Structure formats: structure tokens, C-alpha cells
Amino acid sequence: MLHVGYGNNGVASTTGFIRDRDRLIVTDPGMVRDRSLILGPLRQLGVAPGDVTDVVISHHHPDHTLNAALFPDARVHDHWAIYQGDEWVWRDAEGYELTSAVRLIRTPGHTAEDITVLAGTVEGVIAYTHAWNDAGSTGDRHAQDMFALHSSRSRVLAAADVIVPGHGPRFVPDRRTPP
């Protein structure tokens, strides 16, 4: 993770980073107190903003999208398209593979357009998702559809070994993880 988000006394998204061979993927580069909180950790990894190949937006709330333009050469992915420069290429996110180890799935609930990034790693499958705000989220006061949210959580729990939530540190789900 590049930045661990929070939702109290301000709001910031959890921003993730995935390196898969020549693909450098940033997830949810949204609101942070200072952009250096995203760019500094990238720099420590030897990655310049122009090196990032892909940005994935889990949904269209500003706290998850605000800093997407920090990566001028990246393809930006959302629930229905890929954007780069002045190109808008329609495609459904469901099952879309960024690489053989990184794919997108639809996980509605928080919004109707939410997507999750599933990344296969040596640790297992890591899910970058807004199906949880943080590890203890039992609900979601901003959810548009609680039934869909719980269905999406079950789907993520069936696939993921580690969860990176929208506004908190990564966690390993267990039987106490709220579906």
C-alpha cells in the first residue's frame, strides 16, 4: 500500500500499488492530506509518476479519484471503460484482466458501479476493494444497496486471502470478518 486511508477527522482513501512485470498499477489515488503521501512511497520504490501504467478507480467518489491525474501516462480503469489521453474505450470491468495475475470484478453496494481489483501474489490473492471501509465495517452508512454490498463481500471473501479496504489498513479475513 502507498497510503493507509481513514474516515474520521478528515477523509483519505487507501491507495494501493501493484507491480506485475512491466505493469505498475495504482489503485484509488484519491484524497490525501498531501500528495507527497502517495508520491513519496512510489519514489521509494523507484517509480516516477510517469512510470505508472494503470490507475484503477474503485468508484467515482472524489475521495478515491481526486489524484488520478498525478499519473499522466496511465490508462485509467473504472467499471465500464478505460481512459487514456482523449480515448474512451468501452469495456465491462467484470473479469477484465490487466495482467494474467490482476483482474477486475464488479462489487456493487457502496455504489452501483463499485469494482474490486484481485491481484494474485506470493501471499495469495489480495483484494483492493471498497466493500469494506475498514476491517471492522459491519455496514456502510453511504451504501446505496446493502443487499448488494453483502453479496459483494461474500464474493470477495471467497476469492481473497488479504483485503485492502477503502479507508483502512489491509487485513486477513477470518470467520469474524463481517460479510
- Given the C-alpha coordinates, what overall shape results? globular
The average pLDDT is 96
Largest beta sheet: strand ordering: 1-2-3-4-5-6
CATH superfamily: Ribonuclease Z/Hydroxyacylglutathione hydrolase-like
What is the total domain count?
Answer: 1
Number of helices, counting only DSSP H or I runs of 4 residues or more? 3
Q: In angstroms, what separates the terminal alpha carbons? A: 23 Å
Helical/strand content category: alpha/beta
Helix content: 10-25%
CATH topology: Metallo-beta-lactamase, Chain A
The first-level CATH class name = Alpha Beta
Q: In percent terms, what proportion of residues is strand?
A: 25-35%
Number of strand segments: 11
Strand-and-helix sequence, N→C? EEHEHEEEEEEEHE
Overall CATH architecture: 4-Layer Sandwich
Q: Could you name the ranges where pLDDT drops below 50 across 5 or more consecutive residues? A: none
